[in-house]
């Protein structure tokens, strides 16, 4: 073993000490220690998170209720007369806008406010799936209803002899 063995070991030990820092623990970026864990949530913070969650769900249900109301008015006006049929499509579109805006804003706010609401990711995913399912069920019901009406409108051809 020559002089390079001892010098190499000394240089490696010096580099290791620099990496580990003075206290012997690994150093992080810019020499700072990792941040401490966040403190446990207080009762007031949990209550605020619960109120935020309920406000968000209340907004979804309000938009969905308005969409169902507009759709119901559209169904009633569709049955009334030929003039009502033109208005019915407007109400169907209005109902669709209400339902889609309510579900869309709920999903966006759920993603943005998941941490302040203290929602775990699986719970947020389940809530998002429920909102999407509501919008999908409304769309299916409206499609089936309009399809049934279109079938009733088309007159049957008289049998030919």
The biggest sheet, with number of strands, parallel, antiparallel or mixed sense and barrel status, is: none
Structural class: mainly alpha
**Uncertain parts:** none
- Count every helix, treating DSSP H or I runs of 4 or more residues as helices: 4
* Overall strand count: 0
Q: What is the residue-averaged pLDDT?
A: 82
Describe the structure.
The protein is mainly alpha-helical. Helix content is 75%, strand content 0%. It has four helices and no strands. The protein has helices spanning 3-20, 43-80, 82-112, 121-153. α2 packs antiparallel against α3 (82-112). The longest helix is centred in the middle third of the chain and has 38 residues, at 43-80.
Question: Could you give a short description of this structure?
Answer:
With 161 residues, the chain is an all-alpha fold. The protein is built from 4 helices and no strands. 13% of the residues are buried.
List the helices and strands and how they pair.
Layout: H1 3-20, H2 43-80, H3 82-112, H4 121-153
Fill in the keyword field for this structure:
161 residues, mainly alpha
